[in-house]
Amino acid sequence: MKHARPESADDLATPAGGRAAATPAPVARAMTTFSPADEEKRRGVRRMKLTATGLLLFVAVVYVLAKWASHEGAGGWADYVAAAAEAGMVGAMADWFAVTALFRHPLGLPIPHTAIIPTKKDQLGVSLGEFVGENFLSQDVVRQRLRAVGIGSRLGVWLADPEHADRVTAELSAALRGALTVLRDSDVQAIVGEAITRRADAQEIAPGIGKTLEKIVADGGHKRVVDLIVTRAHDWLVLHDEQVMDAVQGGAPGWTPRFVDKKVGERVYKELLRFVTEMRDMPSHPARGALDRFLTDFASDLQSDTETRARIERLKGEVLGRGEVQDLIASAWTSVRSMIVSAAEDERSELRLRVRASLLSLGARMAVDAKLQAKVDGWVEGAAVYVVTTYRGEITSLITDTVAGWDAEHTTKKIEANIGRDLQFIRINGTVVGSLVGLLIYAVSRGLGA
């Protein structure tokens, strides 16, 4: 009896047990088509079927002729031939039934335990999934196989080759460029700005500034800044003497004589110039000492004075809240992204050269360092074991659901096309072996009867 084909895609995807398969429809459709290679295999199966059937017909003819010859008194040999041919027919028919029962009901009769593949397809898929899960996706098997491969040493030797290091560097650069291209600047800018602002708000900066300032003063690092300031101040006073004296005279009362204002302005300018010159030329100038004490006290207040620390926090909040600062933080991503993309595209950039050198160095170490190889092997084994133990159910269900989604009729035809030719040899062997066994049994029976 020929199986009725499903009438819809839903029927195709529904196994015999009634559970809808999770496999997408395109997978099921793939089992309803035959490639040129499949068609050639089917032609080969048909040729072998004709051969096996022809052999069956041959022994049947031999049996008829041998029985006729025995009836006509040809002698005892005819009985031997008839016995062999009869057993050959039995063997051929038995093996024909066995082979046919795998793919369909023999003679269309719904005999129990026949048409095994189309009726047991889903169960075979489940069994196959369980077999793969137990024998290929177990923790011990994965660890043993990966340990035998020696990924660490092989990867080290592979990476130590400059050509391979160049290839990996190029692939990493392409992946980096692709990732940066996919990311939307506005989203990243918002995330970066929020992260920086949140981190700055959460972290009090006054104690850190105080410790840094304290260390700078203790090491005398601020003296170079003071030297620069007083030097620039001295040079500025020399170049702008008229402006300084005019400023002093402009602040004098209106009732004072002009010559007095001029004398006062000149005096103030000279004293100011003398003060700045002495500070520049005298490392032990009292003003420098006063500045050192001021900075030391300020550093201490930044770390311990509550009011000073609160003022710094308020100042920090005001600065971070300004639109110009937020725009600067957000625009930092654009600059960084442009810099990274340019470096990734340039084969001679410092970024790619450093990555290449690091890969070569890592490969050279991994090729000879047994401890590093063991670490890499352990990482790979751990990752692989995690994947197979965590997702083993999903992997095996992919097998079972895929098989469940196949169309039974076409699945049977495909399997028969791939293994049917070899199965026809079973029929041929059954004919030959049956004939020999029948001949042997007949000969032993005659011998014992004699």
From TrEMBL:
Keywords: Membrane, Transmembrane, Transmembrane helix. It comes from the Bacteria. Residues 1-25 are annotated as: Disordered. Residues 13-25 have a biased composition (Low complexity). The chain crosses the membrane at residues 50-69. InterPro entries: DUF445. The keyword Membrane applies. PANTHER family: INNER MEMBRANE PROTEIN (PTHR38442:SF1), INNER MEMBRANE PROTEIN-RELATED (PTHR38442). This is Uncharacterized membrane-anchored protein YjiN (DUF445 family). It comes from Streptomyces pseudovenezuelae.
